[in-house]
Amino acid sequence: MKDSNLSRRHVARLLGVAAVIGALGVSIPVFANLPNSTFDAGDGNLVLNDEAKDWVNAPNFAQRIDLLKGQGDDAMGNGTSEDTEVPSLVTDGIPPNKSDITRFYVGSETISNPLKNFLYLAWERITDPSGTTNFDFELNQSTTISSNGKTPIRTPGDVLIKYDLANGGTNPVLGFHRWITGGGSAGSLCEASSKFPCWDKVHMIAGVNFEAAINAVDVLDPINPTAGPNPATPGTNPLARTLSVRTFGEAAIDLVGAGILPQGSCAGFASAYLKSRSSDAFNSAIKDFAAPTNINVNNCGALSVNKYIDIDESGTQSITGNESTIAPLGGVISPDLTGWNITIAGPGSFSCTGSTNSSGALASCLKADNTAANLSALAPGTYTVTENANAGKTIGHNASAFFNTDPGPAAPPSSEQVVVGLGGTVNVNLGNTCYNRATFQVTGVPNDQSGLFVRYWTTDPTSFTDVNLAKQGTTSTWQATAGGFRKGTVVHWQFGLNSDKTVRVNGPAQTMPGYPSCVQSASTPFGTATISGLKYKDLDVDGTMDAADTATAGFTIQLKKGGDVIATTRSSATGAFSFTNVDPGTYTLHEATTTGWIQTEPASNGDITINVPLGVASVTTYGNPAVPIRFGNSPLSKIGVTFSSLGQLRDADGNNTGPATRATSIDCTHGGASVGSSTNSNTNTTNELDLNKSQVTCVITYEDP
Q1: Of the four, 186, 489, 679, 691, which is 20 to 30 A from 533 by CA?
Q2: Count of CB atoms within 10 A of residue 372's CB?
Q3: Residues 6+ away with beta carbon under 8 Å from 237
Q4: Among 4-8, 167-171, 251-255, 420-424, whose mean pLDDT is lowest?
């Protein structure tokens, strides 16, 4: 930065004097911006010259506009000194030769690389009085107002920064005191008091840790007195914009480097106000003051921990807020953001554990002594935020198990490390979503069926899992469930019987829906078959169906399981017969006896054994090797043979005495085998015969009696 400002050159010409003062234990300023700060508190003005920041754009700016003497100006009186714990307040009690404060400015900023915490202070007064200039900036940790109604209560660790100028001097000297309440002898620890509480001995601020200047020439104050958090009283005349020589002073302080904020711990201030002392003596009377203004100056970091439901499973919280807002405004169902148990561990054995509230925020975190940790005031350092196992917790409409996606994907507990620095807030957003469950159902299972299983897989059918299906009460539905699936995963499945796992039936694939349903289901029927066969007339009685054989209608076929007939049907005009809705299993087909017919296929009135496999819709064959399901029959016949004598024997009177001839035997054969015979009979009827398109030969033996 160019060193062309008049006040700064004036300060430089006083280096010799400053060196003498420094030898006596008094600090001198550095005549350039503080290292790593872009704020210029060494030029003695309020505007931007060649620096990045000055009072016209001070970071975290706050101001107090003080009334002038005779206008009801706040002042301290009745012997109030710096060690007076609760100052006594009066109105317009400022001597003419002392500083009458007009404005008090304060700013602050935290920068990184390296981490620094800077405090910026400024004062303005109406005129340059004779004598020394002694301003004190009081920094309080509390904003609770004391019994005087204006100034905050003091707590141990509050700081008083002294800003002193010799009579006619331009070289500000800075030091600070801490408010103490004990710890030894008050006479040896206190700056001016012989009893506690008091301000302790001065701690001089080394020149490398501050920069300060006053205006050596008239300067312009462009800051609107009615702007900022503490505007002037409405209706009053604005204060003069041109500040005469020595009526403006400023300082920038490296709070950690100066020792005001302890390094590696959390300390800070919430309120600040400006006072003027009547002399160099620390126990001299306090006169004018500018009322306190709230500030937020500390070397603490803040940690904000929040829970969200990672609906899209992206591992990153949606910027729309949909994943951290309860329905209907958001996509999260209540109470899925509530009750997540989280532990934070950090520097100096810091540890606390708490649970998220209904909006997902970790609002309370209790330490081992059961006191609440202040997550807005943490010592800088590395912190580990752990989402604990949260055993038994479920999310989604169907009470589903969860896993961590941010950080993750991983099963809980899951941890994330963050660095908390000076100022600002580190946000830790912990994302979870549900494991999806797939439900497999098989409907219409026969009551006597048992031992069903489901086989499922996602991408590789050779990498499968088998799970037994369970009957659902007294219904015909069997069900199994599998979990642990991610959103969008396609689950393929089949069901079968444990008795033969090589035979399985495909079920419809399921695509996992993700949060908030977290459950998908699919069902498939157990499945039945149709057994079909043919009834035919076996014309050549060869036990097989030939081209000349014809269909026969009206024959009764029975379907048996075990020894029980479970269904009956008749052959149609085409000879066809069938049984529908047949469950998988082993059955017997039996042809009922029909008078006048003989069964030729299967031979010897045999039955047909049918195996209905799982998942087969039509059964038309049986046996191994497989042959068609058929019943063949041939009709039966009887042949009657009668021998009758036409001639009659007569007696002498001409009367008939009997037939003239007589059969002694009638023998019938079919295919070389006897099918019936009679002896001494004129008639004979054959056995029931399958004609077989052949001949029956009957031989009649007769005689003339």
Answers
A1: 691
A2: 12
A3: none
A4: 4-8
* Tokens 């109470």 found at: 335
What does the alpha-carbon distance between residue 375 and residue 360 come to, in Å, rounded to a whole number?
15
CA dist 450 → 43, 112, 351, 499, 524 (Å): 94, 71, 56, 9, 17
Q: 262 and 121, same structural domain?
A: yes
Is the peptide bond preceding residue 328 cis, with omega within 30 degrees of 0?
yes
Task: Report residue 103 as tokens.
Answer: 């404005």
Instruction: Determine how β-strand 529-537 pairs with β-strand 618-619.
Output: parallel
Q: Minimum mean pLDDT among 9-13, 215-219, 307-311: which range?
A: 9-13
Confirm if 578 and 617 have CB atoms less than 8 A apart.
Answer: no
Q: Report pLDDT digits (tens) over 219-261.
A: 999 888 765 544 444 444 444 478 999 999 999 999 999 999 9
CA dist 277 and 251 (Å) reads 18
Total number of domains constituting the chain: 5
Domain boundary among 637, 655, 673: 637
Average pLDDT score over the chain: 89
583-629 tens-digit pLDDT: 998 999 999 999 999 999 999 889 999 999 998 999 999 999 999 99
**How far is the C-alpha of 329 from the C-alpha of 335, rounded, in Å?**
14
pLDDT band for position 22 (cuts 50, 70, 90): very low
Do 473 and 497 share a domain, yes or no?
yes
Share of the chain above pLDDT 70, in %: 91
> Cβ(201)–Cβ(189) under 8 Å?
yes
Which residue range forms the structural domain that includes residue 680? 640-703
C-alpha angle 45-47-51 in degrees, rounded to nearest 5 = 100
95-99, Cβ contacts within 8 angstroms, sequence gap of 24 or more: 95/278, 95/287, 96/129, 97/129, 97/130, 97/131, 98/129, 98/131, 98/276, 98/278, 98/287, 98/288, 99/123, 99/125, 99/129, 99/133, 99/135, 99/276, 99/287, 99/288
- With bands split at pLDDT 50, 70 and 90, how would you rate the model's confidence at 97? low
Residue 583 CB neighbour total at 10 angstroms: 19
CA distance 666 to 685: 9
